[in-house]
Structure to design on (241 residues):
């Protein structure tokens, strides 16, 4: 069984041409570094969020690879022996994320997740990716998921209440970022496993109006951290019984 940290080291050793940057993130008083690497050979943007814990929630280590030209996102969580796949939403721009993180690192900025636009997405299992479909993935994506199945996930954007209903239905099998901005916490819950990540809006685009009210900043031009979006993808863990 290979965890995400070992996979990341294999990436770094194999792709010496990667352009690497780190985003310093603060969430409810807990800080961590999210690495964002750009592969100029494939145009992939590779993000790594380390395992961290806060508010009684264990946030699972996650590697995510996105390619704007393919319109694809592939990620792997913790010790899972499978990957996940989804289509990028039209306003997501991994290349912009790479530039934002590069700029923020040069400025020695620390980004508070509470200041980002929050977008809630629920993912449901659709099917396993076939060998023919895997041929359409980038080289980096195939290396991340070598030897393990890739689960195709269908996504839908939800309002806060709808998202919470999905969380309650999933119960202890839920995985996703649970620290939602309305400040409510799931009561009497056992120790939860979760994932979190950030993405960026493309220039001239915005998330759906239903989510715009979560923004605490105006969107500026250039590659500033005000373009960052806190993307919360919830789903049921496939290995949960």
């Amino acid at each position: 069984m290979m965890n995400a940290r070992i996979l990341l080291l294999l990436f770094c050793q194999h792709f010496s041409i990667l352009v690497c940057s780190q985003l310093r993130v603060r969430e409810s008083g807990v800080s961590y570094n999210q690495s964002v690497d750009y592969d100029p050979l494939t145009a992939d943007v590779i993000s790594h969020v380390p395992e961290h814990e806060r508010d009684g929630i264990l946030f699972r280590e996650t590697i995510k690879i996105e390619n704007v030209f393919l319109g694809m996102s592939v990620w792997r969580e913790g010790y899972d022996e499978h990957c996940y796949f989804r289509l990028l939403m039209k306003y997501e721009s991994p290349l912009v994320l790479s530039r934002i993180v590069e700029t923020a690192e040069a400025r020695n900025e620390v980004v508070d997740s509470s200041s980002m636009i929050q977008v809630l997405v629920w993912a449901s299992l659709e099917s396993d990716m076939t060998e023919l479909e895997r041929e359409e993935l980038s080289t980096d994506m195939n290396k991340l998921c070598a030897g393990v199945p890739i689960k195709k996930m269908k996504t839908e954007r939800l309002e806060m209440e709808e998202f919470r209903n999905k969380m309650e239905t999933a119960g202890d099998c839920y995985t996703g970022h649970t620290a939602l901005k309305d400040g409510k916490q799931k009561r009497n819950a056992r120790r939860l496993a979760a994932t979190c990540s950030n993405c960026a809006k493309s220039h001239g685009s915005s998330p759906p109006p239903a989510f715009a009210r979560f923004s605490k900043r105006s969107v500026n031009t250039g590659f500033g951290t005000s373009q960052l979006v806190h993307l919360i993808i919830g789903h049921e863990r496939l290995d949960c019984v």
Remarks:
- The chain has six helices and 15 strands.
- The first strand starts at residue 19 and ends at 27.
- The helical segments are 4-14, 94-106, 131-134, 139-144, 160-170, 209-212.
- The radius of gyration is 17 Å.
